UniProtKB/TrEMBL annotation:
Domain HTH gntR-type: 19-86
Gene Ontology molecular-function annotations: DNA binding; DNA-binding transcription factor activity
Entry-linked SMART domains: FCD, HTH_GNTR
PROSITE patterns from the UniProt entry: HTH_GNTR
SUPFAM superfamilies: GntR ligand-binding domain-like, Winged helix' DNA-binding domain
Name by which UniProt lists this protein: GntR family transcriptional regulator
Keyword Endoplasmic reticulum included in the entry's annotation: no
Length: 233
């Protein structure tokens, strides 16, 4: 069984308060997953998280249900709610969805120029993280980069879906023994995709991204059999 989540690991920036919704509580927890702060298998304490976020137990339970639907959490009868532990089939499916959404977003851009503010910001954040040798932050910046690519489709529904998909992907990153070796080689590829988009070549950027996703997926799939079996909470 994973360690129980303590309140200090949940940092909403401000308490949510009764006037807010379960959706906002879920958004805070989803972002913690996307940042790599909530690890697979960890048990979530309703009392401690509710106190940290400033929400009622009922509101928190509704947020847990939302995140369970997104495959980020799993509820075990009489045992509690845990962060999900992914398997290889999850990885394959996540990458299939990413290919459908991210690559299509780039292919459908047409002629430039494109609105690349968020893409550039994610690359800049990744460069700073690499300079600081902060590999967890580099992984987070990479997640934001791909969220920004999907965002070029200008689809609010697509953005909502990809937030969950990419947070779920972050759970897979924990299987990698060497975060630097996994994340750092993708920074130049992110930079290359950005330069290609700046040149107005969305179709070419989509091909670069397709190869990138193939390589990333294979790395994760190959890493899973080499790890000790994850204990299911």
């Amino acid at each position: 069984m994973g360690a129980e989540l303590v309140a200090d690991e949940v940092r909403p920036g401000r308490t949510i308060g009764a006037h807010d919704t379960a959706e906002r509580a879920a958004a805070v927890l989803r972002e913690h997953v996307a940042q790599g702060l909530l690890r697979p298998g960890v048990r979530l304490s309703e009392e401690r998280i509710g106190r940290a976020l400033g929400v009622s137990r009922n509101t928190l339970r509704e947020s847990f249900r939302l995140l369970t639907h997104e495959r980020l959490l799993i509820h075990r009868l009489n045992r509690g709610t845990f962060v999900r532990v992914l398997d290889v089939s999850d990885i394959q499916d996540i990458y299939q969805v990413r290919r459908l959404v991210e690559c299509a977003a780039l292919r459908d851009l047409g002629a430039g120029p494109y609105q690349l503010t968020d893409v550039r910001a994610a690359v800049t954040a990744a460069e700073r993280a690499a300079q600081a040798h902060d590999w967890q932050r580099l992984g987070t910046a990479n997640i934001h980069f791909h969220q920004a690519l999907a965002g070029l489709a200008a689809s609010p529904r697509g953005d909502d879906m990809m937030r969950g998909v990419l947070a779920e992907l972050r759970l897979a990153f924990h299987v990698m023994d060497e975060p630097r070796q996994f994340h750092e080689p993708y920074l130049p590829r992110n930079q290359d995709i950005l330069r290609t988009l700046e040149a107005g070549a969305g179709e070419t950027a989509a091909r670069l991204l397709s190869d990138y996703l193939d390589d990333s997926r294979q790395q994760l799939v190959d890493a899973y059999p080499k790890q000790p079996a994850h204990a299911t909470p």
